[in-house]
Amino acid sequence: MNQELHVVLGTGPVGLTLAERLVAQGHLVRTVNRSGGGEQIAGSVRVAADVTDRGKLAEVVEGADVVYNCTHVPYQLQPQVLPVIQDALLDVVGRSGAKLVTVETLNQYGPTGGVPMTERTPLAAQGPKGKTRAAITERYLAAHERGDLRVALGMAADFFGPRVLLSSLGATVFPAALTGGIRLGLGDIDLPKSYTYVPDLAAGLAVLGSDERALGKLWHLPVAGPHTTREIHGIISDLTGQPTQLTVQREPEPFGPYDEAFMAEYREFFYWHTEPFVMDDSLYTSTFGGSATPMREALATTLDWFAHTAAKGL
Hints:
Layout: E1 5-9, H1 13-24, E2 28-33, E3 44-48, H2 54-61, E4 66-69, H3 78-96, E5 99-105, H4 128-146, E6 150-156, E7 158-160, H5 174-179, E8 182-186, E9 192-197, H6 198-210, E10 218-220, E11 224-228, H7 229-240, E12 245-249, H8 260-266, H9 282-288, H10 295-311
Parallel strand pairs: 1-2, 1-4, 2-3, 4-5, 5-6, 6-10, 7-9, 8-12
Antiparallel strand pairs: 9-11
């Protein structure tokens, strides 16, 4: 049987989880980051490359059937760097003939006043990072329409799961939950909110890479719930047997790994925590089937990962 080559650009939580899934599906998998180091997924091959270097990018995607853009750019650099990455992908992946699947985020919609977000929600971001994301989405879809590139876009909500540290459900929540310490909540924790479990995101991206119906469109990948953040903390307490000790910040102020510089950039997206923030995944599920992992199961697996990571002293 002819094995497909799938190239994953970026080895953060999403890229690594996606690589695991693609290997399990029997694909040849090449993962790419700038250093060539970091966690290695068994059964995959790691290559060092800067994706903005078009010559090197052409080398790493040569022969690929599908390329996944899971690169991560710090908030403060996004307006400058994300368009440069897109330029390289449009050029190099377009010429290669491979399909491109890219991860997008809800910040390009901007505040909706609590109206659930669908793939038809206007791209009405108000800040520079959200506007950059919106322009990137529009440019990908236009490139597909012209025939320059075969692309599918997978949209995610706020991430959580194994390997996810810098998130509102990350290193400020799970380690403290395991020890009975103080966890962080942001904004109004009684509002409904969608969270994306990273293994569900990876599963959705793999579907977009394998199904021709995905091409030329933006898809909201599966999310559980919605749940309020208070409900999620209650489930965590039930799973750990530890009391809920929670500090709630109504404004984007530094806390733990969120330093002043990070929170200054995150201010643009703090509306995620001050109005209902619900992503509708029904177009994806009605087209491709499947559903998100139930929240309790996802939280239990995430707690296990943090517990094992702490036990290893990492």
